[in-house]
Amino acid sequence: MKPVAERFEVVQVIGGFRLLDGQSQERVYWRHDGMRLAPGFYAVHCPSGVPAQTFNDAAVFRGPFKRREDAETALAELQARAAFRGPQLAYRRRPPERVVPSLSVARSASTGSSPAAAPRHAPAPARLIPFTGGKRQ
Prior knowledge:
Layout: E1 7-15, E2 18-20, E3 26-28, E4 40-46, E5 60-65, H1 68-85, H2 103-111
Antiparallel strand pairs: 1-2, 1-4, 2-3, 4-5
């Protein structure tokens, strides 16, 4: 299978990571989150560079729809968005990653070796409230 230009099509998910593509061929799909799609019709956008007849984690699935006509309407919207934004922005492969401070930065901050390495949002110290035995002062 050689890579092709971006493609748009309506597919029918039949369950168990299997779908019927536009040519009624049974194909396997996969997603980066490992979750199965609910059975039904989907509008699919596969970006350029994805091999033909492959539905991998870069594919954008919109649906499920009960009727093929509804999926075709959603497909027209996907095509319009891709034409407006350009092919490189028509999909997002994965959600943006959160930046988490590394353990080495926290260690150097706790030892006081470098003031620049200290975390920007250090937690406030806990405020201690003396126990009065349930009586108000």
